[in-house]
Every structure is written in C-alpha cells, then in structure tokens.
C-alpha cells in the first residue's frame, strides 16, 4: 500500500476494520520476543488466583494490534507520530485453537496542522471495549 495523502482524508474517514486472532501460541511467541514471561499470560491457575477470568494477552500486544491498524491504513509505520491507549479490560485468551478475537475500528476525528490527523480507535474483544482513549496522530504525505 502506498502512503496515504492528507488531501484524501476528511474528518469522519473510516479506517478499514482489522480483526486479529490471538491464541495461546501467540502469547508464547510474544513473551519470547518481549521478555514478558508474567505467569498470568500462560497459567489459568495463577490468573484465577489473582482475580482474572483466565489467561490474558499482554497489554502491549493488544496495543500493538491497534497500532498496526493505523500504520496499515497510513501506509507507513513512521507516519504515526503520537500514540496513546489506556487498558480498560483484558483480552482473555481461551486454551483452544480459536483463541480470542481482537477487532480494531478507527476514524479520523480531527485534522491537525501540517497534514497531521488524529485517529480515534475502538478496540474490542468478545464484545467488550479493551482499550479506552485509544488514539494516534498520523503525519500524512
């Protein structure tokens, strides 16, 4: 995909929805890449003992999936000049082959200076909003 141009974007422009599956195998790979081996990301017993509904995805993995929706839309990962999320609910990853679904929707909420836009994101899993105040500032060509 080529880099998106500011002239092609207006307030209300919708990003293509991105749906990703996260499995327990993905959590193992992410733990190895990130160095985050917290037991809540692989043990149902420990997750339950600390009050979680089950094994949960790494928060930064969830944030990364949301960022990927923006960089794919913009056509350039370097175009994202600011990114912010708050974690509102965990992504619970069942111990099966299907895993959990994470859906990312976005829309241009504001046109800023110098060809930059603010994109507001809605990130859900299992019908629940898992990130709040999720937004990115993107410098378009």
TrEMBL record:
SUPFAM superfamilies hit by this protein: Thioesterase/thiol ester dehydrase-isomerase
Listed InterPro entries: HotDog_dom_sf, MaoC-like_dom
Ranges of residues in domain MaoC-like: 18-106
Family: Belongs to the enoyl-CoA hydratase/isomerase family.
Protein name listed in UniProt: Acyl dehydratase
């Amino acid at each position: 995909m080529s880099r998106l141009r500011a002239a092609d974007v207006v307030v209300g422009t919708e990003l293509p929805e991105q749906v990703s599956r996260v499995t327990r195998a993905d959590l193992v790979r992410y733990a190895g890449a990130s160095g985050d081996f917290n037991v809540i990301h692989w043990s149902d017993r420990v997750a339950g003992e600390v009050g979680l509904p089950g094994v949960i995805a790494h928060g930064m993995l969830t944030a990364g999936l949301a960022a990927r929706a923006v960089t794919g839309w913009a056509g350039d990962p370097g175009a994202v000049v600011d990114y912010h999320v708050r974690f509102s609910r965990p992504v619970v990853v069942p111990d099966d082959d299907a895993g959990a679904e994470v859906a990312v929707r976005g829309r241009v909420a504001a046109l800023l200076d110098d060809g930059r836009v603010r994109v507001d994101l809605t990130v859900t899993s299992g019908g629940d909003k898992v990130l709040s105040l999720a937004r990115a500032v993107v410098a378009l060509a």
